Amino acid sequence: MTVALETVLARAGLRVTATEFLSLVEDAAKKLTPAQQQPSTQFSSAERAALADVGLDLSPVDADEHDARARTVAEQAVMRDTALSVNQAAARIGVDTSRIRHRIGSGRLVGWKDRGGWRLPAWQFTDADVLPGLDSVLLAVPIDQPALVLAKFMTTPQDDLLLGDRPVSPREWLMAGGSAERVATQAAMLGTPA
Known about the structure:
By secondary structure, the chain is mainly alpha-helical.
């Protein structure tokens, strides 16, 4: 399995050993709520009745049922592995590390504290600068949205962001000189019902 995993990691462009990646996956899985084999135990009898009335299935999870947490754990591990340190971010955009920390503190960059210091998702940087329009977009993002939700939004094609006739991700849209206000309007809706 190690050779196969290392092959997949190399094809994905991840610079991490299989052992390091599995450690990242383990850490990410520990941060998530453990799987509930009996979801109904989390609710009172009145809550169970109300949820059942609207069609929610609270029956026990089958042993062979796919664990929906697996994709999230893998995405979180990849985001963590590809994130930049404060030093790397500062070197990339040509500023002092104190400027990076200031931008994190003022909400002008996204980051999280991890073992060894701050980590900054790579999607918010170009080869030599910060993503154009990032300040406007980050100001619009609801404060309760986790880094992974924002990363998925910024890197997933959106039907109303078109380059030619092709839907593109907000990141790609901004890189092409698209309106930051359009992305900010969409970002403001993160976490709200569709």
